[in-house]
Amino acid sequence: MQSQIERGIEVLKSGGVIAFPTDTVYGLGADAFNAVAVDRIYDIKGRRRDRQFPLLIADTESLAVLAGEITEMARFLAGRFWPGGLTMVLPAAASLPAHLGTGPGIAVRIPDHPVCLALIRGLGKAVIGTSANLSGQRPALTAAEIRQHLADKIDCIIDGGRCSGGKESTVVDVTGKAPVILREGIIPATEIERAYQEYQEVDNEAHCHRC
Q1: N or C of the chain: less Cβ packing under 10 Å?
Q2: First-residue to last-residue Cα distance in the chain
Q3: How many domains does the structure of the chain reveal?
Q4: Which helix (H) or strand (E) holds 172?
Q5: Helical spans, DSSP H, in the chain
Q6: How far apart are CA 171 and CA 194, in angstroms?
Q7: What's 163's domain CATH number?
Q8: Longest pairwise C-alpha distance within the chain
Q9: Alpha-carbon distance 96 to 158, whole Å?
Q10: How many CA atoms lie within 13 A of 173 on its CB side?
Q11: Distance CA 128, CA 53 (A)
């Protein structure tokens, strides 16, 4: 596996596109700051250019170059669900390149998978982390599925066995005062709602102590 990871890092650094296992489903990845590589993923998936790709990072410190203001509520959810299957839509940093999206938000996740984290750390930057499938089709759970449908379109496939998650990440918009669930995935909506209720309780207690 280590040799596959090293090969994957080389491909990412050279501007290529890879497929790799995550804690949810197999992903297609590229250096998020390489506009040509990101554009290739749009072509590979047949995805509309107005639909932004989520980014995978290895630690919360990486948010400094990706996101603008991060609310206490967003930090609370990150502390609860990261690393894991929560993708949060945060206010985008003003310095983000245009190819990562022209909207006000950026979708970010810290995955709970050693291969993912090794790739991100090896590249030293955020990695595009979209599901490895053609748009509209179900996500791939094995490297064999990727070989069948995408092998001639990408530069490297890291075979980490069957993905145990089986579902895509849950996407939550945290740019406002309350979380808005945009896509329910591996984390049930009820868990997000329960966490938000806990946050409100903690926040209310903090306000009372300051009164």
Answers
A1: C
A2: 55
A3: 1
A4: strand 170-173
A5: 2-13, 35-45, 72-81, 114-123, 143-150, 189-210
A6: 16
A7: 3.90.870.10
A8: 63
A9: 28
A10: 10
A11: 6
How far apart CA 127 and CA 75 sit, in angstroms, is 21
Token pair listed for 9: 């890092």
Q: DSSP string spanning 89-148?
A: EEEBPTTS-GGG-SSSEEEEE----HHHHHHHHHHTS-EE-EESS-TTSPPP-SHHHHHH
Can you give the residue range of the structural domain that contains 55? 2-210
Whole-model pTM above 0.90?
Answer: yes
Average pLDDT of the chain is 93
Whole-number pLDDT of residue 206: 62
Residue 147: Cβ within 10 Å count: 15
For the cut 90, the answer to whether the pLDDT of residue 40 exceeds it is yes
Q: How many CB atoms lie within 10 A of CB 207?
A: 9
Yes or no: say if 149 and 140 are a contact pair by the CB < 8 Å rule. yes
Write out the H or E segment, with its range, that includes residue 173: strand 170-173
Res 207 pLDDT > 90? no
The DSSP output letter for 53 is P
Q: How far apart are CA 172 and CA 135, in angstroms?
A: 20
